[in-house]
Write a structure and sequence with these properties.
This protein is mainly beta. The protein has one domain. It contains no helices and eleven strands. A hairpin with a 3-residue loop joins strand 9 and strand 10. It starts with a strand and ends in an 18-residue tail after the last strand.
């Protein structure tokens, strides 16, 4: 990951940039060396609400830049979800007043996080 993504700010369809940490190898042949730029897309996102389900992100890779040529990819997706918020967490303040304290449970994928994707359709190479 070249930049972080958060369920609090990401939008479905948003693109992000990443770099291959290992070469893409098909049938023993290196198709793309490590360090190759790839582009991903946010497939699904949900922001966390105070009393709602936790936030989540689902991302996939959509292309790689091989020798200055964009090649389309179809890969598995990566899913991450925040912890579910507590139903109720009552806190007594000054022994008299009760407040409902709930925290949002958004989730993020940080910079330089290593993720694994698998091709779901054959990669067509020309040349």
């Amino acid at each position: 990951m070249q930049s972080s993504l958060s369920s609090a700010t990401a939008s479905a369809g948003e693109h992000f940039e990443a770099v291959l940490q290992e070469p893409l190898v098909i049938n023993g042949e290196v198709i793309a060396p490590n360090g190759t730029d790839v582009t991903g897309r946010v497939v699904a996102v949900r922001r966390s609400g105070r009393l709602h389900k936790p936030g989540y992100l689902r991302i996939t890779l959509v292309s790689l830049n091989l020798k200055e040529q964009q090649m389309l990819l179809a890969t598995s997706s990566f899913f991450v979800q925040g912890d579910p918020p507590r139903k109720r967490n009552w806190t007594l303040i000054g022994g008299a007043t009760a407040t409902l304290a709930t925290g949002k449970k958004d989730v993020a994928i940080g910079v330089e996080r290593h993720l694994t994707f698998r091709l779901t359709q054959p990669l067509v190479t020309h040349g």
